[in-house]
Each structure stands twice: as structure tokens, then as C-alpha cells.
Amino acid sequence: MDAQKVDMFIMSNGKFFESHHINDIRERLIALDESKWAILSTTQFKDPTTTIIVSLLAGGLGIDRFMIGDTGLGVGKLLTCGGMGIWTIIDWFMIQKATREKNMQKIQQFL
Amino acid sequence: MIKIKNFSYAPGEHEAEAASNSYLMSLIAIIVGLPLPIVNLIATLIFYLGNRKSTYFVRWHCTQALLAQLSMLFINSYTFWWTISIIFKGEPITSNYIAFLIVVIIFNLTEFITTIYTAIQTRKGIHVEWWFYGALSNIICKENS
User: Fold this and answer.
1) Could you say which residues from 5 to 64 on chain B have a Cβ atom under 8 Å away from some Cβ of chain A?
2) Is A91 exposed, middle or buried (CB count within 10 Å of its CB: 0-12, 13-18, 19+)?
3) Is the ipTM of this complex over 0.85?
4) Alpha helices by DSSP H, chain A
5) Which residues on chain A are in Cβ contact (under 8 Å) with B12?
6) How far is CA B78 from the centre of its chain?
């Protein structure tokens, strides 16, 4: 894939991934076939900032976990009232990382 | 007591954030879980388990935070149940109890301040090793695991 296109993609979507994954993503995108660009450029990634806000406001109900696609963990969190509050606190600090990892899993489908 | 050391690689922005979060989260858990001494340990343990597949820098600092909380559990649990027995069973307040309480308060304050300092430094990507806990973390946490 064209390096300029890849850099543009990284610039606009870099915040959705872990900083230590960026270089790896860039290298693998450059090696990727040009035909994948259309799918890649239209892929929607979850915003870590949005999930942290949801986690702060409705973390006790597991909405943040539902949002990033962890339905099982979301149900578990909902039924245990946010793990008696402890899980809610943990997720305030972990949900952004979890969101970025989910985005990484999503992009790996194309790489 | 606290040593700033060079880590084997320069951690990225998000790695430093996650490592710092392990200390910050333990502080929040202490405050929320008061007076129960187990809540912070449970929270730090779950955080550690959640990050066990993360990078070496994050895992190392999660281990150090967990070990610090683990040692706090024993001393704080003993104090908690001693205090409960004084309040509810009417046991006398002895000089031993007062002395033990002072030691526990000093120990907790030291740990609290050290954790805040470490959280600040780790957020900047600086690798901070505590006395004893740092060496123990080096043994437990391996780079290639």
C-alpha cells in the first residue's frame, strides 16, 4: 500500500491504537494489498475517550463493556452490580486500554 | 528506599499510562475500600490479571503494585481485627496496641506517599524500583514470558 496513504490513516486513526502497536501497524499496512484500502478506510473504530466517559457514568451497569463488544463481561458486570463496585473502579483505569486492544483485533482482520 | 533505574527499553506513551494506572488504581481502591484492608488487594490483583498479556513494563509495575498491596494486607488485617475486638468485645487498649497502631500508620503513610511518587514518575516513563519489592518483581516478572 502507498506509504502516504498509510501515514494519513495512522494520523487520523492513531489514537484508536496502543502507541507501541503503531509502528507494527504501519509496516503491515505498507505490505498490504491496495485492494484492502476501501474496506480499511471505511472501518469504524471505537473511541477510547467515549468509552472512559461511559465507564465513569454507567460503569456499574457494565455499559462500557457492552459498548466495546465484551458482552459476556458486560452481563457479568451488570449482574454483580459492577463487581460490588470494585470492577467498576478497575475498569475506570482499564477500559481505554481494552478499547484500543479491541480496535487492534479489528484491524488485524485485514492485516 | 526508592531507586530510579534504566529499563531495558523506552516505554511508549500508553505503556507508561497503564503502568501508572496500576498504582493510581490501588490508591483509589484503598480510599473506597476503607476500612476493609482486602479491597485494594482484590482490585490490584484483578488489574494485574487483566494486564498479564501486556508489555513487560506494564506487567513489571503491576507486579510491584500487587506485591506492595499484598504486604499491606497482613499488617492491616491484623490491625483491623485487633481494633474490632477492642470496640465490640471490650478488650483493653494496651500500650502494645498503641505502639502497633503507630507503626501501622507510619507504614501505610510511607506506602501511600511512595505509591503517589511512583505513579507520577511512571507516568513520565521513568522506571522506579522500590527497596525489596523491586528485586522481588525482577524475580517474578520475566521479559520474555
Assistant:
1) 11-15, 18, 21-22, 24-25, 28-29, 32-33, 39, 42-43, 46-47, 50-51, 54-55
2) buried
3) no
4) 3-13, 22-30, 37-42, 48-58, 63-68, 71-79, 81-84, 86-108
5) 18-20
6) 17
| Amino acid present at A6 | V
> Which residue's C-alpha cell is 484491524?
A107
Sequence ranges of the domains in chain A: 3-108
Alpha carbons A54 and A33: distance in angstroms, whole number: 37
Chain B residues with CB inside 8 Å of A93's CB?
Answer: 21-22, 24-25, 47
pLDDT digits (tens, 9 = 90+) for B12-58: 888 899 999 999 999 998 888 888 888 889 999 999 998 888 899 99
Subunit contact A20:B12, Cβ cutoff 8 A: yes
Sign of the C-alpha dihedral, residues A13, A16, A22, A27?
A: negative
